[in-house]
Amino acid sequence: MCSLFYSKFSQFQGLSAFCARRHRCQGMTLVELMVSLVVGLLITLAAISALIVTRQGFSTVDAASQLRDNGRFSADMIQRIALQAGFKDPLYAITPPSGKDLTDDALGLIPANVTGFNNAKAKTTDLTTATARTSGEVGYGSDVLILRYQTAKLNNDTSSSAAAAADGTMIDCAGNAINTIPIDRNDRMVSVFHVAVGSDGEPSLMCSRSNNGLAPYSAQPIIQGVENFQVLYGVDGFTSVNTAFTGATDSVPEKYLRANQMVVGGDPSSKATYDNWRRVRSIRIGMVLRGALNSQQERVSQTFYPFFGFRKDSSSDTPGFALSTADTDSSPDKGTRFTPAIDGRLRQVVTFTIHLRNDQGL
Description:
Layout: H1 2-24, H2 30-84, H3 90-93, H4 100-107, E1 114-117, E2 120-121, E3 131-132, E4 144-149, E5 189-197, E6 203-210, E7 218-224, E8 226-235, E9 255-257, H5 271-277, E10 280-290, E11 347-355
Antiparallel strand pairs: 1-4, 2-3, 4-5, 5-6, 6-7, 8-9, 8-10, 10-11
């Protein structure tokens, strides 16, 4: 009897343990599974969002750093070349040209050391004229800056002029040191800064150059992402725009003018126009540089002012006319108010002034 009771008890005890184990091995309910999936999905979405924000922030910081580097390099390059404008080696500054150049020299028809064009595209065959830009094209409103100067002969070079070598200190806008020496006072190298679309489709600050100032002018990009390039010229002895400047000169510019305001009688190659250019004492540069697509945190409309500020004679003007003259709200200078497309690009304005070192009247 006792053994039978013990056997039944053992069976009951084993069944209870099996039921307990089975209860413990049961899976999650459908509700529990759905809750787990939702919680996991939320965690994944949060992680992805954090990754996207972090990556976008990294891209913005990287683009901002690149823009600063491009701005510094462009400012250094333009200042270096502009400070050379008008330089002439004393040995060749007194050497008159020959042929037609001698006649043009006597008539004052030799291009000045600093010239340019407003809202224009540089030509690779002729620097006395330019092609006007049309509204809507890349670089619309951008200007052309033309700088001329000579190389210098090595101080210790005692060879004849034909075999003499330059000292290599004068460079062009592409950074090339020119080793050939000039033959007379009007034999000058030329560097041209302007905006054009590079082979990669990006607007770039271009360098067109020539060792002797004559065509053709080879062009190459030096700074990528420059979509607006503005130039104003500080004039000494200014009297009135588009007339021959007759004011007294003291080496201090009275007005900053656009290139088209320097032209007399509509002729950019006349003696009166070149005489105006020879009164330039400083150059004011304004640029808008852009980064890569989606480098900006927010896609918003922005307006940039390369020459921010108001005219001294009008406190009610809208921004964008600082340092210029003869501007009105109804006819502003193209490019001094620049509103690009909303393309998610980070942009930066670079503005600086260059005081010319050499006498431009030679």
